[in-house]
Amino acid sequence: MKFLVITSAPTFYKDSNYRAYAPYVKEMNMWFKSVEEVTIISPIKYHRPLLKASFNAKHINLVGVPNLAMNNFFDILSLVVCVPLVFFKLYKEMIRTDHIHLRCPGNIGLLGCIVQVFFPKKKKTAKYAGNWDPKAKQPWSYRLQKWILSNTFLTRNMKVLVYGEWPEQTKNIKPFFTASYSEEKIAEIPTKNYNNILQFVFVGTLADGKRPLYALQLVENLLKKGILCRLAIYGEGEQREDIENYIEEAQLGSVVTLHGNQPTDVVEAAYKKSHFLILPSKSEGWPKVVAEAMFWGVVPLVTPVSCVPWMLDNGNRGIILTLKVADDTETLLRLLKGKEILKKMAVHGAQWSHQYTLELFEAEIKKLI
């Protein structure tokens, strides 16, 4: 089978290997197990640090396209030339392939959504990795992609994989998930002790969308209330300097540690040592780090975005943040007094997360291909 991937995620060729963002590669390698030939249409340049991994497929064809950014006037002007070029490449490769796989949302994914309309008989899948909540406030390009993908007249012979279960969806919309761990690791759940120093962890991009500064503020407030705790931050981003300044000004150097981007096994070890995950995001698709943390019995503290309330069973498997430091601190203090509710949250969260293993994920992918 010839399998075509259309994505805004950049792909790189170096030392006879095709590489891309590591978590994305991990998922795509499972799709590639069931196909003979892969073509990837994506940007081939990216100028920021990126945790990369190599694709496993033996036969990969990379078709490079411009990034289609719209950051300034010159970017917008360049679209006049770039968009027709990308349309042509998409159409050309869709003719050749057996299965079209779109990765959305994104500018390349948007063009893919439009061009696939001309191939109603081709077998297709789309992975919408963003927030599928119909009520969410999103950019027009995201809303347009969701509308095209949901329209069964324009989008035919396609399964659209979305995070969470939402009411009044068209028949081609399929609730899906992302997995990180194998069934073999289920037995390795460490027992959490909430009587000693509490270990908090933040895993994600150090950017405004993830609100890492709120994690600092929450831990700082707990310290002021007499709670012994530590915060480990994993990730890099534009707010790193702001975070370093905050740590210095608030004298949190002995409490907060910045680890930067780390391999999967290092982050896994951090989960095993942690009691709580803080993720005060503005928006998410499937917040992978939440499911990963829950797998190891970590209680998540998360904002109610996208499918998070469903993941947390509306507060039975974790704590839903209000983003009011005083209120969130009081909620945590109240739970720490008894601890039994926290222990139940940890157990229920782990049991829920254990359903979504790599084995199940791979089996579900095979059904789609």
TrEMBL record:
Pfam families: Glycos_transf_1. Keywords: Glycosyltransferase, Transferase. Its EC number is 2.4.-.-. It comes from Aequorivita flava. InterPro entries: Glyco_trans_1. The keyword Transferase applies. This is Glycosyltransferase. GO terms for molecular function: glycosyltransferase activity. Residues 198-346 form the Glycosyl transferase family domain. The keyword Transferase applies.
